[in-house]
Amino acid sequence: MASCLLLLSPLILLLLLISASRSTSDSNPTNGFCSVEYDGELSSSSGRILIKQGTVVNAHHMEVADVYIEDGIIVSVRPNIAVGDDVKVIDAAGKYVMPGGIDPHAHLEMDFMGSVTIDDFYTGQAAALAGGTTMHIDFVNPSNGTLSAGFASYKVKAEKSVMDYGFHMVITKWDDAISEEMELMVKENGINSFKFFMAYKGSVMINDELLLQGLEKCKSLGALAMVHAENGDGVVVGQRRMIDLGITGPEGHALSRPPVLEGEATARAIRLASFVNTPLYVVHVMSIDAMEEIAKARQSGQRVIGEPVVSGLTLDESRLWNSDFTTAAKYVMSPPIRKAGHDIALQNALAAGILQLVGTDHCTFNSTQKLLGYGDFRKIPNGVNGIEERMHLIWDTMVESGKITASDYVRITSTECAKIFNIYPRKGAILEGSDADVIVLNPNASFRISAISHHSRSDTNVYEGRTGKGKVEVTISGGRVVWEDENLKVTAGSGKYIKMPPFGYLFNGIDQADARYLASLNAPVLR
Ligand code: URP
Ligand code: ZN
Ligand code: ZN
């Protein structure tokens, strides 16, 4: 690809780049859509399903049992449930029956770095369902400087949803209006988390003053503060250093924002959250440096959640040095995928409970869009895929390898996310009364990942060629069988917006800690 491009005239190159910046639907026309059907109907016999004799896995317990579903709800979980002929029966003997995955971190149809992510709420969610994820939480960016306009625009984007979803909200500036809107988002719109970018200087980056204001506001609302932790000023210096050295390709991305910048920002955010005494959620933990800051804070009793993502857990940076631009550029995301060794350390931290749940940061740009940064890595749209691959890769990397149990797997892919964002046990559990978002995973079957067969709209896949054990054979979303026998059957508009109430479990005890702090001051001194 690189050598091809060198032969192109500047005019053709310019036209290519313009089309890249607009492109939202020109990739992967075959598999992304042919296997996805709009049918407008409930696809299983009037919503009554019996999953027979599987090993039902919850984060707290595992047992061989049947699971009976009616009208989108799990009605019964016990052995030997008898049903009539009008019920669809799924034989799960020898297989695991688990809550559908919840992905805490995705960016569908997001305007970012001069482009729009290629997967929208239809294709991205269809891909998720094919991979066993039944809910995701997306990040709403403000629109025209207001949170309300941003929220309204994402509600429109999500009209074609094929599975349930929730929203985090991004805060990029501070004034009284934003502060009031945060309250509105929490009290009326079902948002209980706000994200602050400590990088991307000149676009969404915030400074420490804003972060402190945001942390205090989050605390008062019972909303969780989330951070993208990289030192944004340091990134700019690192980028300039690479450009001055003549390093303009994708490897410059990794070299310009090393782990030390992620570790510094993670430590800073943790200390500011400690100063405010409010919980903190660190998104996409990519390095040992950041993970160790989280470990230290948690050991000292601070409420800090660390979210590694599939790319950081299963890939290393060597691919950014590939001599083919298209191949190297597809791995550009921030913070960068790190040197080999960080991946294993993050896996071990996840197994040890130092990190709590796994996201994807699914933020997919196709190879034409990635061309925007040909000749200048700073312009390559940042982001990789993962929403379809997460459940398989985590099973293979963590359970099949013996690092964690099936119950741990449910905890890190579903339950913990539901608990943190305060929607448990409606989501994240196979319990009577929970939503019927369920997967059947066959531990003896294998998966193979390829852009040829995946359901994302992108023409590339960062896990191309990966194989492993453990295959999601059935996905049930909202009581409908949407993935079975390698066939997707989804209905645009069937996904529901899940409101997430404030004051989740991370806020328990915050008042008492504040009271202890006030009592410890011994001030003001009466004079
Ligand atoms: O490279 C990434 N991570 N793209 C998505 C935006 C973000 O920082 O989460
Ligand atoms: Zn981020
Ligand atoms: Zn992200």
Automatic annotation (TrEMBL):
A GO BP annotation: pyrimidine nucleobase catabolic process
Record's signal peptide: 1-23
Gene Ontology CC annotation, any one: cytosol
Keywords: Hydrolase, Metal-binding, Signal, Zinc
One Pfam family named in its UniProt record: Amidohydro_1
InterPro entries to which the protein is assigned, alphabetical: Amidohydro-rel, Hydantoinase/dihydroPyrase, Metal-dep_hydrolase_composite, Metal_Hydrolase, Metallo-dep_Hydrolases_sf
SUPFAM superfamilies to which the protein is assigned, alphabetical: Composite domain of metallo-dependent hydrolases, Metallo-dependent hydrolases
EC number, UniProt record: 3.5.2.2
Cofactors demanded by this protein: Zn(2+)
Reaction(s) catalysed (UniProt annotation): 5,6-dihydrouracil + H2O = 3-(carbamoylamino)propanoate + H(+)
Top enzyme category: hydrolase
Gene3D superfamilies per UniProt: Metal-dependent hydrolases, Urease, subunit C, domain 1
Entry-linked NCBIfam families: D-hydantoinase
Quaternary structure annotation from Swiss-Prot or TrEMBL: Homotetramer.
Record protein name field: dihydropyrimidinase
Provenance organism: Platanthera zijinensis
